[in-house]
Amino acid sequence: MPGSCLVSKLLHHVELSPDDRALIARLEEAERPHGRHEDICRPGDPVTDLYVVKEGWLYSYLEMPDGRRQIVRIHHPGDIVGLPEIAYPEAVTGLRSVGPGLLCPFPRTALDEIFVRSPRLTALLLTLALREHAMLADLLRANSRLSARERMAYLICELTARLRVTNPDLGDTLPLPLSQTEIADHLGLTNVYVSKTITAMVRDDLLVRTETGLRLLDEPRLRSLAAYTDRHTRISTDWFPARTCLAAE
Amino acid sequence: MPGSCLVSKLLHHVELSPDDRALIARLEEAERPHGRHEDICRPGDPVTDLYVVKEGWLYSYLEMPDGRRQIVRIHHPGDIVGLPEIAYPEAVTGLRSVGPGLLCPFPRTALDEIFVRSPRLTALLLTLALREHAMLADLLRANSRLSARERMAYLICELTARLRVTNPDLGDTLPLPLSQTEIADHLGLTNVYVSKTITAMVRDDLLVRTETGLRLLDEPRLRSLAAYTDRHTRISTDWFPARTCLAAE
DNA sequence: CGTATATTTGAACGAATTCAATTATAGTGG
DNA sequence: CCACTATAATTGAATTCGTTCAAATATACG
Predict the structure, then answer these.
(1) What is the DSSP letter of A85?
(2) Residue A91: its chain B contacts at CB < 8 A?
(3) Which residue among B75, B96, B112, B199 sits deepest, i.e. has the most Cβ atoms within 10 Å of its Cβ?
(4) By three-state DSSP, how is residue A71 classified?
(5) How many CA atoms lie within 13 A of B65 on its CB side?
(6) pLDDT band at residue A242 using 50, 70 and 90 as cut-offs
(7) Cα distances (angstroms) measured from residue B7 to each of A54, A99, A126, B73, B77
């Protein structure tokens, strides 16, 4: 089998025992294909499953009664989707696909199993959740305090850093399958102004457009525009419990 | 002793065994007073401790090199502060006090203990972290997609809902020790416009000012202005592991 | 009581929105 | 495979919500 994106992403952070790997493997047992622009789950739906993304991009979003929308997080292959939801009986955010792809649904109870059997894996899951929290705080800062150009630079830096975790030889080419309306709903702008902002950045030799995305001409300047901090490297795993917990069966 | 705010807040969500209570009690062993406008920790500092808030308000913030600031979360008595930080070796956010108060610092390793000894408590901590995540997503939506008045309504609803968890007889009176600059840095506005917005809301009979805060004249309208969802009631604890984990000593 | 810190108010400005029309792109069926 | 239609992106003009700047007033602290 072709090693899972999830396991390779996790191994990027911490070593895993065969037992732990077996626990993780169970999260990817089922498979479910989806088309483009498909609603996997709407805000307020009862939450039954979580997902591992196997192929394609998706996003989690909140919406207002009048149609205003906020895309809270963009998901890539290897991501676990829905962890923040399990604190509530109903989905906080909706989940929608960008293009066609493949999801691995697994039940909430699979986490229970992990909690009782492996404190180490539990610590890793918690850490992933906390890292997402930090990244959400960064996005909040961006959308609250940065100009449109700075926000766009932020998004570019963030996506590039994230994709490089599993694809280190990405270079300066960023695939960007999101529509400008989706980018706008993520960055708290309008589709019209996203278009104008990208055009202006191209004019100023920060970017060029490619078939499928963007090429970054001046990454240091983009990073400094957004005052970007990479939250994907250097996570702290040294405090993880080493012992394995023996559950009372 | 006067029952701790933390324990009473946790019991609001889930029952705890004596063992679990003992584990929690250790988080409040030390005490450290602080003054007003005091920096407990600055962004980028090495993280050693977490805190339980015993008295006073504080906030976590991010800042830009040029001084722009984003207040990410406001902390009240009974809150655990710093959980999102432990994923990284250095502090993501700074921590600053609003007025004078009392903090209980405890080392990261106290969590390790909890992870190995009590899956149930671990699940509770994870759930609290995930709830904070959901609330951060709400703030992101507010700051990205709401008008100044709607954001102000959001903040009022959110603070009211949070304070009512430990103080159900709050009524329509919201204590608000934050300066307008702090409110602005939380909502992604300027201090000037916060002032103008509050004045306009008072004119429109949504609020009146009191000595120490605000009185809400039309809570339903405030909630509908912000399309507010209360994330403090009804968290999902049914999936928590019931068994206690017996650690290999 | 005096000084530093907050808040208020007004006027001018500007970044992003809204509205509307045009061009380009991507899916779909003949 | 091309034409047709729906969706997405671009462009420009008018507008607006919130900012910036500056001065006056109020409040809090030592």
Answers:
(1) G
(2) none
(3) B75
(4) strand
(5) 7
(6) low
(7) 41, 46, 21, 21, 11
User: For chain A, what is the mean pLDDT?
Assistant: 91
Q: Which parts of chain B sit beneath pLDDT 50?
A: 1, 245-249
Q: Is A239 in the B-facing interface, judged by CB distances under 8 Å?
A: yes
- Give chain B's count of helices (H) and strands (E): 8, 12
pLDDT at B155: 98
In terms of Cα–Cα distance, which of A146, A158, A147 is closest to A231? A158
What is the amino acid identity at position B113?
E
Strand partners, B214: B174, B209
Sheet containing A101-107: give its strands across: A32-34, A101-107, A49-55, A80-81
pLDDT for residue A14 = 83
For the whole model, what pTM was predicted?
Answer: 0.95
Pairing of strands A69-75, A58-63: antiparallel
Question: Which positions on strand C lie below 7 Å from a protein C-beta?
Answer: 6-10, 15-20, 27
Cβ contact B152:B193 at 8 Å: no
Handedness of CA B120, A20, B87, A157 (dihedral sign): negative
d(CA B214, CA B163): 14
Rounded CA–C1' distance between A6 and D6, in angstroms: 37
A166 contact B CB<8A: no
What lies within 8 Å, CB to CB, of A43 at 6+ separation is A61, A62, A63, A91, A92, A93, A94
Cα distance between residue A221 and residue A121, in whole Å: 38
- With an 8 Å Cβ cutoff, are A86 and B236 in contact? yes
Give residue A102's identity as a one-letter amino acid code: L
pLDDT of B52 reads 96
Give the nucleotide with minimal C1' distance to the Cα of A35.
Answer: C27
Output the CA angle B190-B196-B200, nearest 5 degrees. 140
**What type of residue sits at position B92?**
V
